[in-house]
Amino acid sequence: MAEAHQAVGFQFTVTPDGIDLHLSREVLKHIYLSGVTSWRKRAIRFKNGILTGVYPASPSSWLIVVIAIMSTIYARIDPSLGMIDTIKRTLSTVLSAILFATGLWLSLILMLRYTLKTLLSYHAWIFESHGKISFCTKLWLSLVKMFSGRRPLLYSFQTSLPRLPVPSVDDTITRYLESVRPLLDDEQYNQMEVVANDFKKDQAPKLQKYLILKSWWATNYVSDWWEEYIYLRGRSPIMVNSNFYAMDLLYVTPTHRQAARAGNAVHAMLQYRLDKSYNSREALCASPHPQIMLYVLSSPPLLLRDPDFVQHLSDRKHLVVYHKGRFFKVWLYYGGCHLWPSELETQFQMILNDTTEPQPGELKLAALTAGNRVPWARARLKYFSQGANKASLEAIETSAFFLTLDDEVHGYDPDKLGSLDLYAKSLLHGKCYDRWFDKSFTLIAYKNGKLGVNAEHSWADAPIIGHMWEYVLATDCFHLGYTEEGHCKGDINKGLPPPTKLQWDIPLECEEVIEDSYMVAKVIADDVDFHGCLFDEFGKGLIKKSRTSPDAFIQLALQLAQFRDKGEFCLTYEASMTRMFREGRTETVRSCTSESTAFVRAMEDKNTTRLDLFRKAADKHQNMYRLAMTGSGIDRHLFCLYIMSKYLSIDSPFLKQVLSEPWRLSTSQTPQQQLNMVDIKKFPRYVGAGGGFGPDSYRFGQNIRQAMLDIRALFDQKDKKEKEKEM
């Protein structure tokens, strides 16, 4: 252990002449460097904290205000309307002027902040046609740029983002009835309409008043309930059902050395965390609003209680590594600085070379996090609340993140059928005991040098992990690199403490609980039918040339594929981001609409109006997506009304029915190239396959491919006819 390694630098012996103290210069040097690094971090955080706290103003503007006020005093002008004279009764003239100037400066900051918040509440720009900008939007852009001031840091816009508005009950119910119309026959729809109108007239007004009150008091009226009731109160397994995965680069593997690839990836993650902890990373932007960044790396574990809760930790200095049934603790810092990739490679190679056997119960221990939550919570209290088990569990849960040095070979191989399917399944659930599913994320390094991530969902949504993952892959390939032999670059400090095996004392009763959890998880994993469909016939560029949203194109292809597969339409979920609002997470876009079903039927009937129906359906979908992004969605409002009804003990048949409707088709998308660290045109092979959640069937994947080709054929036929007319 690092503590033991450093402790030997202080030795003393008791002699008849007194105490003979021996000090190690090397250890003292590292203690000194650790202190310097710690104080440097504090200084940078303090500086960036001030810059963020006074945003959109700057610290230098305070000096300008003070000088201006002092100048007016010497010119015998009193801009304070007598306030400075009142303060002068207690303080001197100079101090009175400085105090007044400071108060004026803070007032100006608040005014600028609320002005910016008001400006950011304007969302008409998002509904404008592509390529057309109205005068109001141009004026708005100019004002936002003017009031945004200097370049924002990571959290600069936190206090300037508007609150998520509560939609009106009339609008929500109208949009809900519109969304279920294509899924119900006339009799079913009429019944639903009666139930919805009864709710709107009788129960909704009271629930809405309390919800509006909550929106005034809370930062976001949805996020806390969404996190608690959707993620943390669930007692079913989070493996596959909640956790998601992210893939490595598809066509490129920078090195086939497992330890080296893990070393570069971990070092890149530490660098990413360092930038975030300093608050120096730029804010995430979504045309054109800078957005908040949720916790990454420093908020790892879910601790088991009833319900679970997310624990936020900072500056974790160690990592826990799993390999062939053993858990190892690896220190990430030495002498106040995080380890270099070559040093991390050496640490991981030591683990790979270790031939010791797992301790009793250690091999499948992580299966506790893959099974049902209640047995895990009880086992935690009974078997992991004292002694070696408590210390080892604490080491895992307080680590920066979890690393699995997998003993399997995975990755996309175009010559191997089903390689992408097996790769995704491995990332999604592995062997059910070789990922710690409670951690914010598990980094997975395979035997052939491929990487991947399994992420827990409660603390953040996929774009946040995607943002970090893009940084890691780009840094790994284009900034850190490898030697000709495939090792990490840099020298190695031979004085580093080696990895430490975590110790366990697991009784037979606990082993039975572990085995039960493993069997529950294995049933889920075996039930996963995954097919990864690589579509390279065309991309978003061609879709945009047709003046169509790529998202709408894909969603209509999904509807067509679903109808061809099942012969019917179903309630469809698509995730939309609400990050234009403070603490915003997601909203649902109901992709199955009357317009999309009309288009799908026309495609099957070979109707000549297919292209017109496609454009109508695409425009409808885009409008719904924009409404969801701007806080006018359906499902989060209905969800919060339902939670409020439970708190008030109000029984609502309408809300019960709405919340019990199953999503038969669930779709999500993760934005690519958020950072633009890699020029895809220059390096076309450096692309990834993104990630995903629980999958659909192989046949459905094939139907999607054909549906996309069929829709493209509509545009090809149109282009062909236009060319024939020109000739």
Q: How would you describe this structure to a colleague?
A:
The protein has 727 residues and is of the alpha+beta class. It has four domains: 9-46; 54-127 and 135-148, no CATH class; 169-228 and 537-670 and 707-726, Chloramphenicol acetyltransferase-like domain (Chloramphenicol Acetyltransferase); 243-527, Choline/Carnitine o-acyltransferase, domain 2 (Chloramphenicol Acetyltransferase, 2-Layer Sandwich). 50% of the residues lie in helices and 10% in strands. The protein contains 24 helices and 19 strands. The strands form six sheets. It has an eight-stranded mixed sheet with strand order 15-9-8-12-13-14-3-19, with helices on both faces. Strands 17-16-18 form a three-stranded mixed sheet, with helices on one face. Strands 1-2 form a two-stranded antiparallel sheet. Helix 11 (258-277) packs across helix 12 (341-353) and helix 20 (594-605) runs antiparallel to helix 21 (610-629). The chain is globular and about 85 Å long. The termini are far apart. Residues 1-10 and 285-304 have low confidence and may be disordered.
CATH class of the largest domain equals: Alpha Beta
Query: Please, how many domains?
Result: 4
CATH homolog superfamily of the largest domain? Choline/Carnitine o-acyltransferase, domain 2
| Global Rg | 29 Å
The biggest beta sheet reads: 8 strands, mixed
As laid out across the biggest beta sheet, the strand order is 15-9-8-12-13-14-3-19
